[in-house]
């Protein structure tokens, strides 16, 4: 892939990426706020401004892989929650769920354009073709971000969901891994293990949507 193709791919990926991280983190903050935690709002994270949610490494990973990445986690203070263990499950699920909803909406737009204009018209259009590519990429990125975050490794959402369903003793032991979470995550990524964990369900859902 030459340099111009790389730039073109990044440009096409940017709208879907910004949407993905924004709805993901906003959903976490909003559900936490609904449960009584004002932390995200007080820190300016209860916003649809994507700049507030960008994580440098997660951004780079998502752009390079077009599937796997992460945003800057929204802060949640369990002390505000009426039932911290149970509430954290729903707060953590909110981000991936928001990504699946966003991917579904983008897929609807994609099919709407496809039905309205047809493939031949889209391919020959300087306006419709980039729009369709942006929608396809947006679906891929949103599904990728949602599924990737369900991996039960800190600091991903899946770790908080797992901690919420484990017994208190097991959850406490599991949470001790948090300081090693990023190391474990990087090992999973660079070893290729993540591909076996998340790529098959990502592809399956993307194929169903598109």
Defining key terms:
single chain, 210 residues, globular, mainly alpha
Gyration radius, to the nearest Å? 18 Å
Low-confidence runs (pLDDT<50, min 5 residues)? none
Which percent band covers the strand fraction? under 5%
N-end to C-end Cα span? 25 Å
Mean pLDDT: 88
Query: For the report, how would you describe the main beta sheet?
Result: none
SSE-based structural type = mainly alpha
Could you estimate the helical fraction of the residues in percent?
Answer: over 70%
Counted beta strands: 0
Description:
The protein is mainly alpha-helical and 210 residues long. It is 72% helix and 0% strand. It is built from ten helices and no strands. The protein has helices spanning 3-34, 39-42, 56-65, 84-117, 119-123, 128-148, 157-165, 168-175, 181-191, 193-209. Helix 1 crosses helix 4, helix 1 crosses helix 6 and helix 4 (84-117) packs antiparallel against helix 6 (128-148). The longest helix has 34 residues, at 84-117. The protein is globular. The mean pLDDT is 88.
Blueprint (SSEs and pairs):
Layout: H1 3-34, H2 39-42, H3 56-65, H4 84-117, H5 119-123, H6 128-148, H7 157-165, H8 168-175, H9 181-191, H10 193-209
Quick summary:
This protein has about 210 residues and is mainly α. The chain has ten helices and no strands. It is globular, with a radius of gyration of 18 Å.
């Amino acid at each position: 892939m030459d340099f111009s193709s790389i730039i073109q791919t990044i440009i096409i990926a940017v709208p879907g990426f910004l949407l993905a991280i924004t709805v993901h983190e906003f959903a976490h903050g909003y559900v936490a706020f609904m449960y009584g935690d004002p932390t995200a709002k007080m820190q300016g994270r209860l916003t649809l401004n994507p700049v507030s949610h960008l994580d440098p490494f997660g951004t780079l990973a998502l752009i390079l892989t077009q599937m796997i990445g992460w945003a800057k986690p929204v802060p949640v203070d369990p002390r505000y929650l009426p039932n911290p263990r149970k509430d954290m499950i729903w707060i953590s699920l909110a981000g991936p769920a928001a990504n699946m909803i966003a991917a579904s909406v983008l897929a609807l737009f994609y099919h709407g354009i496809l039905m309205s204009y047809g493939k031949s018209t889209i391919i020959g259009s300087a306006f419709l073709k980039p729009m369709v590519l942006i929608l396809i990429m947006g679906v891929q990125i949103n599904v990728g971000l949602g599924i990737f975050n369900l991996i039960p490794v800190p600091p991903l959402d899946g770790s908080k969901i797992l901690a919420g369903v484990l017994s208190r003793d097991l959850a406490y032991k599991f949470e001790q891994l948090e300081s090693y979470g990023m190391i474990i995550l990087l090992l999973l990524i660079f070893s290729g293990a993540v591909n076996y964990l998340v790529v098959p369900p990502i592809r399956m859902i993307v194929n169903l949507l598109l």
